[in-house]
Amino acid sequence: MTMTHHRRHLLGATLALTSLVAPIAQADLDEVRFGVPPWPGVTVKSEIAAQLLEAMGYETRQNDLAVSVILNGVAEGDLEAYLGGWYPVQTEMVEPLVADGKVEKAVANIQGAISGLVVPRYVKEAGVESVADLDDYRERFDGTILGIEAGTGINTAIGEAIDKDLANLGDWTLRESSTAAMLAQAKQKMRNDEWVTFVGWEPHWMNVSFDLVYLEDADDAGVAEIESTVWTVVPDDLKDRDADVHRFMTQYVVDTADQNDWVHAYSHEERPAGEVASEWIAANHDTVAAWLEGVEARDGRPAIEAVEAQFD
């Protein structure tokens, strides 16, 4: 199957999103633009949504951006969807935009997720069960926490814990990097049975590939045991601009087990996101039909009929 969507890699976090496309001139959308941070789960989730929308007659564009830039783009109407609104770590980033009437939390697309600092099981068995235990073994960890991309909510929480010396982390260092780089470094340390603590979350393939333990939080640091919900964030006026796209977004709820499978196939097996998405759509008619209930394609057909024709 030939995919028609586009993927744009924007390197500057401050790049003006208004240059992505001309202002919308009609009530119905022609193109649906996604903001996609470099996280495998959101990548495949956005890819599946994009393929469904394309089958419905829309063009799509996936823009690889930092979270802060994505949220600004959604708020300004330069993007139509962000499928990675992790709460509570992004609460302070999203809620002000909701309060200002700029964005809508359309649906909790993942529930029961978890995020926070993790350690290998052999580190836990040696006595590290809580964030409060980390500083007792500071030298074993080189006083370093491996984090993900700068500007993400979990990194901000870790930085604040260090600044406030919560759980005795005041002398520790947060090493920010891409998710891929963080996991590569953690994998190397675990291969050598070295001690390491880093940012973990589920759903993600790391929970399948590595034997990890999520630490207990301490001192209300807010860096561990974070029970999370992932929200779909859209412009506040999306329903007025295209009611069918809006309805689809409000019904696009993903089972955690499905996203674990997507991420494992995409990141661990290194299969293309488009291939993972198209195979899953073709094999999961009932779930797709529920997502598209009451949604019409651009030609007026029920959306599920348009999708079935594309993925027959």
From TrEMBL:
Top-rank taxon: Bacteria
Matching Gene3D superfamilies: Glycine betaine-binding periplasmic protein, domain 2, Periplasmic binding protein-like II
Signal peptide: 1-27
Database matches in SUPFAM superfamilies: Periplasmic binding protein-like II
Organism per entry: Halomonas halmophila
Keyword annotations of the record: Signal
Matches recorded under CDD domains: PBP2_ChoX
Molecular function terms, GO-annotated: choline binding; transmembrane transporter activity
Segments forming domain ABC-type glycine betaine transport system substrate-binding: 31-282
One Gene Ontology term from the biological process aspect of the record: choline transport
Cross-referenced Pfam families: OpuAC
The protein's name in its UniProt record: ABC-type glycine betaine transport system substrate-binding domain-containing protein
InterPro entries the record matches: ABC_choline_sub-bd, ABC_Gly_betaine_transp_sub-bd
Example of a GO cellular component annotation carried by this entry: periplasmic space
